[in-house]
Design goal:
The complex is a heterodimer of chains A (575) and B (433). With 575 residues, chain A is α/β, with parallel strands linked by helices. Chain A has four domains: 126 residues, Rossmann fold (3-Layer(aba) Sandwich), CATH 3.40.50; 187 residues, FAD/NAD(P)-binding domain; 152 residues, FAD/NAD(P)-binding domain; 59 residues, Alpha-Beta Plaits. Chain A has a five-stranded parallel β-sheet, with helices on one face. A five-stranded parallel β-sheet of chain A has the order 16-25-19-20-21. A four-stranded parallel β-sheet of chain A has the order 2-1-3-4, sandwiched between helices. With 433 residues, chain B is an alpha/beta fold. Chain B folds into three domains: 184 residues, 3-Layer(bba) Sandwich (FAD/NAD(P)-binding domain); 76 residues, 2-Layer Sandwich (Alpha-Beta Plaits); 160 residues, FAD/NAD(P)-binding domain (3-Layer(bba) Sandwich). Helices cover 21% and strands 27% of the residues of chain B. Chain B has eight helices and 25 strands. In chain B, the strands form eight sheets. A five-stranded parallel β-sheet of chain B has the order 6-3-2-14-25, with helices on one face. Chain B has a five-stranded parallel β-sheet with strand order 16-23-17-18-19. In chain B, strands 1-13-8-7 form a four-stranded mixed β-sheet, with no helix packed on it. The two termini of chain B are 36 Å apart. The chains are: A alpha/beta (575), B alpha/beta (433). The interface between A and B is large, with 80 and 79 residues.
Chain lengths: 575, 433
């Protein structure tokens, strides 16, 4: 069929047109073989231009579309949807990235950026000439979700999924539910204890028929893909029994809520592990909770003063944990308030790097100030020094708030306000190959557009496994992830991208190279025509193309990225 | 006789068409529920659609918002009323709310307007453009802003002289001065309140000179100067059109301030100021930028790294609260502050000052609810009845809160909160059906 292509070149409100002469790009492609019309637009993604494209496609019977704009990560699906609305199969759409690859990369060289943009658009046109209609791969989806981790995020996600009508397996490796919340004395703003909250949470799920709670279970393997994951579980709460039966579950989506671990201080970090009286925040909370008498007794003496050192294991200058752990400032202040409520005469020092009691948590900070807690801010690169002297702990610290004066204080207990770190035993992450960010927490696809989805289709993330969060923030993310997982399984059917690899059976000699290269275990061997050949599982294949270059007989092609298409694009680019 | 009211039915009504309301509506609609969004403004998209780039990824805000807005406006299960007010919401029974809504006249036939802007060219009236935060003017016949949705004209009848120039210029004959407000009765099963927040009005802090000194701007005005659809196509200071080279940011303008009645932290100002500073370093490589702060609250994913990056780029951070801003020579400004690191009172000269204004509660939704009381917290945010384990739950069963209506939040948190509200509303709808 004769190709009739429409090309739209986006100014991106100046993001592109400040560096790329988009009118020149338009001129240079006008009259290219098969190009019927070429237009420039202020915002290609804007509603007005989308309407314009729609009517152009219908009026001119276009059967190929190119938009030259930002990264396809942002807008490929937007323009595919426009094509589809206009009655054109969406795989006739080709995206050219002239923002990240031209205007932003070459902002110091405007003619060069323009020249590169022209070539990129011409290459996209070359690809569009080959573009053809494709039908999505339709698969059945199991109407069930596996929620991994039964901390506050996992429990709430399970409850929400169940309330929306999905079958849920809630899997927890420990013998009881609640996770890290069990170690927290009081959670602001309602001053409930962590245990009380867990009690309420377990009440919410205890009579839910849709929820199967599997405590004391670990996942030993996982396979399959969106709509049809198979997880093998093993009970681990009976250490004596080696042959504990394995259990297999089959779900349409996996919601990961594996939480966080508290940073554990190094031996000698602020005297930790060397001086009695130096404890972490969680240990301090436990100590305080265990007090029954009129005075605070710990480490064989009466505790009259407590110093909290903030940002231990967070915002590290030398270490790897560059990030802020977000919840600890308010958590430490809450513990201090608990202390002064229980033992009003305690002297309380907060050694901070700037208090981050954001939002309404500011009221806690104000309250601690009102009660007479002393807040000291030490310079980022000059942390406090802890020494022992006659059974007392001496803290030496420089205070920014009083002109960097050096202060010295005696204290009975030093509380290291430890941050959140990713769970060290990354069983779940490695089974599902979940990508991690710079901070080593699991990474979402896009913080604002797709905050609970991962690069692995069908696997969503919730709570602190994605990054530090307090309890209510974890619940928000859990409910949002539940809504997403629900939308994947609720209809029982899913559509997958048809852009997958396929094998030329005549050429294939089965050497196993492709299956070794495949990161998704999508290639297996079958017997056909009296020989062994590679077979690609269309619902597992992601169309990444890793198998193509390793094939010695050139037997594998990728739909929509065939050798011919790529060669034509390269020909244009090398002009 | 009572005017006839149009009766419509939906599963859910979302009050407010900003990013949170839109996200909640989209989630509900994708679960198969019929949703109406009621927006008081001329366009959906809320405050986010007006922003330049967003922290910490520096994505262009329009690039993220426009496709969302487009998806919302095209969704088969979503009906949008812009330029509309919710007059009342009454709970009629276990699974039934009735809302009375007025659609104000736009004086333009929406279906016929092509957004060609000929009326705008013809209109002789110029007034301040609220969508550019009063930096420049607009006409009385106007399209709100270039990426508005719907992108159609409206007549600002308060300022219109009824000269008829727009009517003559309009090629599709869609201007209609006889349009009247339309009244609707809407029957719904649940309500999502996504009314967002208000910005602190800097006129209240007289000592900062906003409104008196032209070169004292709000952060929203700077946001517009940095946006892709910016009014001047570069950064200019308003008094004389000079490109500024010594810009100051005053953090906590109207936040963490008991004397202004807002004791809490606004949660977004540190980060948007750091973002603007980074964008300014890109736009004006020779400019010096100083951020005066009490504490830097860079707490979210990638935020502290973003703060460190700004320091690395050469943005100066001075710990100190600005006491007073006075006028210097040639439009420059003098900032008086206590430099906390030395304990001394100092003065600094800047040629442009940006007030990082804070977030305040928008409690406009409260009086809408007539039969049951929609409770607020002491700071007038919509009260979350069970903030930890059921964050979208309000004092009225079947009414959920989404986004910054319940407290200050940045965009990622608003979107998660909107997803949570949708999930709780979906569960509610499922239960009562």
């Amino acid at each position: 069929m004769e190709k009739r292509i429409g090309v739209y070149i986006c100014a991106c409100g100046g993001n592109i047109s400040d560096y790329v002469d988009i009118e020149k790009v338009k001129e240079s492609i006008t009259g290219e073989n098969a190009v019927l019309l070429a237009k420039t637009t202020m915002f290609a993604c804007g509603d007005a231009n989308q309407k314009d494209m729609d009517s152009d496609i219908r009026k001119n019977d276009l059967n190929g579309i190119v938009v030259a704009s930002c990264s396809p990560k942002l807008h490929l699906s937007t323009f595919r949807a426009v094509s589809e609305r206009a009655g054109l199969n969406k795989y006739n759409y080709v995206h050219a990235n002239i923002r990240e690859q031209a205007s932003w990369a070459h902002s110091d060289d405007k003619p060069g950026a323009t020249e590169k943009a022209i070539l990129l658009v011409k290459a996209a046109i070359a690809k569009a000439r080959h573009a053809s209609s494709l039908e999505p791969i339709k698969i059945k989806s199991k109407k069930s979700v596996a929620v991994i981790g039964a901390g506050i995020a996992g429990i709430k996600a399970a409850q929400a999924l169940s309330a929306m009508g999905d079958k849920v397996y809630l899997i927890e490796k420990e013998s009881k539910i609640g996770g890290n919340l069990l170690n927290i004395n009081r959670v602001n703003p309602e001053s409930e204890t962590g245990e009380e909250i867990v009690k309420r949470l377990s009440k919410e799920i205890e009579n839910e028929e849709n929820i199967t709670l599997l405590t004391g279970h670990r996942i030993t393997s996982g396979s399959g893909n969106i709509g049809d994951f198979v997880l093998t579980l093993k009970g681990n709460n009976n250490p004596g029994e080696d042959n504990f039966p394995e259990k297999e579950i089959n779900v349409g989506s996996v919601l990961v809520a594996t939480g966080f671990e508290s940073y554990s201080p190094l031996t000698g970090e602020y005297g930790y592990g060397q001086l009695p009286g130096v404890v972490t925040l969680a240990q301090f909370n436990k100590l305080l909770k265990g007090q029954n008498g009129m005075s605070f007794v710990a480490f064989g003496k009466e505790v009259k003063s407590v110093a909290f050192i903030y940002c231990v294991g967070s915002r590290e200058i030398k270490g790897d944990n560059k990030y802020c752990s977000r919840y600890c400032c308010s958590a430490a202040i809450q513990s201090a308030l608990d202390l002064s409520e229980r033992f009003p005469d305690s002297d309380i020092y907060h050694l901070t790097r700037g208090v981050r009691s954001y939002g309404k948590q500011e009221l806690l900070y104000k309250e601690a100030n009102r009660r007479g807690d002393l807040f000291i801010q030490f310079p980022d690169k000059e942390p406090p020094v802890i020494e022992e002297k006659d059974d007392k702990i001496i803290i030496k610290v420089k205070d920014i708030l009083s002109g960097k004066r050096e202060l010295e204080a005696e204290t009975d207990i030093v509380v290291l306000v430890t941050g959140m770190v990713p769970v060290q035993d990354d069983n779940t992450g490695s089974i599902f190959k979940l990508p991690r960010g710079r901070d080593k927490f699991y990474n979402e696809i896009h913080m604002k557009l797709r905050p609970v989805e991962t690069a692995i289709d069908g696997v969503t993330i919730a709570g602190a496994c994605q990054g530090p969060k307090n309890a209510s923030e974890s619940v928000n993310s859990a409910l949002a992830a539940a809504a997403k997982s629900h939308s994947l399984v609720s209809t029982g059917e899913l559509e997958l991208e048809p852009i997958v690899a396929y094998v030329d059976e005549d050429k294939c000699t089965w050497c196993d190279e492709c299956s070794k290269a495949c990161p998704f275990n999508a290639i297996s061997v079958i017997e056909m025509f009296q020989k062994s050949i590679a077979r690609i599982n269309k619902s597992t294949c992601k169309g990444c193309g890793m198998c193509l270059p390793v094939c010695p007989t050139d037997a594998i092609e990728l739909i929509s990225f065939t050798n011919k298409e790529i060669e034509d694009m390269i020909d244009v680019l090398s002009q | 006789m009572e005017k006839e009211k149009i009766n419509l039915f939906f599963d859910a009504m979302v009050i407010g068409g900003g990013i949170a309301g839109g996200e909640s509506a989209l989630n509900l609609a994708n679960n198969g529920y019929k949703v109406i969004i009621v927006e008081k403004d001329l366009s959906i998209g809320g405050k986010m659609i007006m922003l330049s780039k967003v922290f910490p990824t520096l994505d262009c805000s329009a690039c993220i918002t426009t496709p969302k807005v487009s998806e919302i406006s095209r969704h088969n299960n979503i009906t949008i009323f812009t330029e509309s007010d919710v007059n009342s919401v009454v709970k009629m029974g276990e699974r039934h709310f009735r809302a009375e809504i007025t659609r104000r006249p736009r004086y333009v036939v929406a279906e016929d307007c092509t957004g060609c802007q000929k009326c705008e060219e013809a209109c002789p009236v110029i007034v301040k453009d609220q969508y550019q935060y009063n930096l420049i003017g607009r006409k009385a016949a106007f399209i709100p802003f270039s990426i508005a949705s719907p992108k159609i004209a409206a007549i600002d009848i308060e300022n219109c002289t009824l000269c008829g120039a727009c009517e003559k210029a309009c090629p599709s004959n869609c201007i209609d001065f006889t349009q009247k407000a339309l009244d609707y009765v809407i029957d719904i099963k649940s309500v999502v309140v996504a009314t967002g927040f208000k910005l602190f009005d800097p006129l209240k802090i007289e000592r900062y000179g906003f409104g008196k000194f032209k070169n004292v701007l709000t952060s929203m005005q700077m946001e517009r100067q940095l946006a892709p659809t910016r009014p001047f196509n570069t950064i200019l200071r308003p008094s004389d059109g000079k490109v500024p080279d010594k810009i100051a940011y005053v953090l906590c303008a109207g936040s963490r301030d008991d004397s202004e009645g807002n004791p809490i932290c606004s949660q977004i100002c540190c980060m948007y100021s750091i973002k603007q500073a980074q964008l300014l370093m890109g736009a004006l490589p020779m400019a010096d930028i100083t951020i005066y702060y009490i504490d830097i609250r860079a707490f979210g994913k990638g935020y502290d790294e973003f703060y460190e990056q700004a320091k690395g780029m050469g943005v100066s951070f001075i710990k100190g609260k600005i006491g007073k801003i006075t006028k210097g020579e040639r439009g420059d400004l003098t900032l008086r502050y206590e430099d906390v690191s030395t304990g001394k009172i100092k003065e600094a000269r800047h040629d442009m000052v940006v007030l990082s204004v804070g977030v305040l509660a928008n409690d406009e939704a409260v009086p809408m609810f007539r039969s049951n009381t929609l409770l607020t917290d002491p700071l007038n945010y919509i009260r979350q009845e069970d903030p930890i384990i059921s964050p979208a739950k309000t004092s009225i069963e079947g009414v959920f809160v989404s986004g910054t209506a319940s407290g200050p939040m940045d965009i990622p948190d608003s979107i998660l909160s909107a997803g949570a509200a949708a999930s709780q509303a979906t569960a509610y709808l499922k239960r009562i059906n």
